[in-house]
Amino acid sequence: MNRVFLKNCECALDMGDGSERGLYVDQDYILQKMKKIHRGISLMYTYYPKDKTWPKRACNAFETDGPADPWSYPYENYFPYLGGILGKTDDEPFKYMKEIRRHGMDILLTLTIDPNLTEEDIIPIAKDLLSYGRVFLRVNHECTGDWFCYTKRASYEKIAEFFVMVCKVMHKYAPNVLMILCAGMWQKETGKLEMEDIFLEAHKVADIWSGDQYLALNWGWPVDLKCTSQNHACYNTQEVYEKAKNTWKRLKEITGQNKPMVLSELNADGDVTGPYEQAQMMKHFMELLQQDKEKWLMGFTAYQFRDDGRLGLEITDPNNSNNGIEQPLLKTYRDELLKPFFSQKLETKEEINLPVKMRWGNSEDAEGFELVVKIEKNPHYAEVYFGNTLKDENLIFEFDGYWFYKKSGVSKIDFMSYFFDHKIEKPAEYKIRFFAPPKEGINSSENCKDWLNNYYTVIKELPEIRIEYEPVEIYTKKM
């Protein structure tokens, strides 16, 4: 048994899960489909607590005849953020945030917020997020556009000042929160960012720079379901890549800083390209990242897992919104996700003995343990048993690139799915690595002194690994 460290990858991948275009999908389902954890899961909510109709979702508060433009309401048609002033931290999005962290991933929270709120209105949000370890918070994204409802309530100067204020609140009351500014991108015609002067101070105080960039998009959805109007675009993937990279270069130039850059929304819309070209465009972009010797991008968020239109790895089954219809993009994206470039590094350290103290910082900073498993040939049974005290622990484990989750109370996990996809050609040794994300999905001040950033679990026994190469019995009828 050796100590093992979970570290950051060359380019992180995050997954969008729910927005105005689709419902949240549980993490057990996503993990089963993707075979691997992401760095984080992106949730999108809206916060206008002083509006009379709040906290009703916009499409319910302002009913229309037929499908409506999501941005035509008084506030955005995301699901309402029920924390903050309302204080409902046992509801959305907190129950999802806890599930995401139990599965070993970080929270990427997007909030569109009324820019006329005060510092006193924002402090409760900071306190809401204090127990969730590393949180990436994106406030009022795409802020140089004119489609979001908050841009109709304030000038761009006011929106920039509001972001600066939210940054200061988070840095003071929730230092575990990293603020993302998603603003204008580089313009080839001018060599500058859109509205770079207005948002300069916001760029300087943000922790992470960002932009949203689609390779193709039908922005007329859901009114224009067939994508027959001019409300869509399809771009050259190479040019999109250069535009994003030049955005990062320009930000370094105008701020005199060197901060991480992410793309908070990226995909090609199957409404425009159809399902096959959609997959190829995303693959091309991810190949460009891997070929680029200048590792300029910290990560990007694939938007999104399941979509009511054609902007997801799955599309929503119109007969049952609990079901998804897999698109060609899912396999293409998963193949890239599993590559080393997009995978967290696993570093083996010294040999250790029981009891083992495991530390969970975040999805790119954790300490666990590894065991060596000898595999002779393709097994018929591959299981991990968690007895006695281990049964109550919340654990994730990795086996040759595939990840598996064990929630508290579960005593057995089958990992045969790896062998369904990989034929064992000759005997070899494999490593199985165990980590312990927060059991309740949140950090606790009772767990440790550095609880804002870390969660600790002590295990006193090892799991039992069962590998069997023959079935228990086969019945063959004699003729």
Q: Which structural class best describes the helix and strand composition? A: alpha/beta
Whole-number radius of gyration?
23 Å
Shape: globular
Our estimate of the beta-strand percent is 25-35%
Return residue spans where pLDDT drops below 50 for at least 5 consecutive residues: none
Mean pLDDT, as a whole number? 96
Biggest sheet overview: 8 strands, antiparallel
How many strand units? 27
Roughly how many Å apart are the termini? Answer: 51 Å
Number of helices: 10
Query: Share of helix among residues?
Result: 10-25%
Write up this protein.
- The protein is of the alpha/beta class.
- 23% of the residues lie in helices and 28% in strands.
- It contains ten helices and 27 strands.
- The protein has helices at 27-34, 58-61, 94-102, 119-128, 156-173, 200-205, 237-255, 270-291, 328-337, 417-421, and strands at 2-7, 12-16, 40-47, 79-80, 106-113, 135-139, 177-182, 186-187, 192-193, 208-212, 216-218, 232-234, 261-266, 299-302, 306-307, 314-316, 324-326, 345-351, 356-362, 365-375, 381-385, 395-399, 402-406, 412-414, 428-435, 455-459, 464-468.
- The strands form six sheets. Strands 1, 18, 19, 20, 22, 23, 25 and 26 form an eight-stranded antiparallel sheet that branches. Strands 2-3-5-6-7-10-13-14 form an eight-stranded parallel beta barrel.
- Strand 22 (395-399) and strand 23 (402-406) form a beta hairpin.
- Helix 4 (119-128) crosses helix 5 (156-173) and helix 8 (270-291) runs parallel beside helix 9.
- It is globular, with a radius of gyration of 23 Å.
- The chain starts with a strand and ends in an 11-residue tail after the last strand.
- The model has no long low-confidence stretch (mean pLDDT 96).
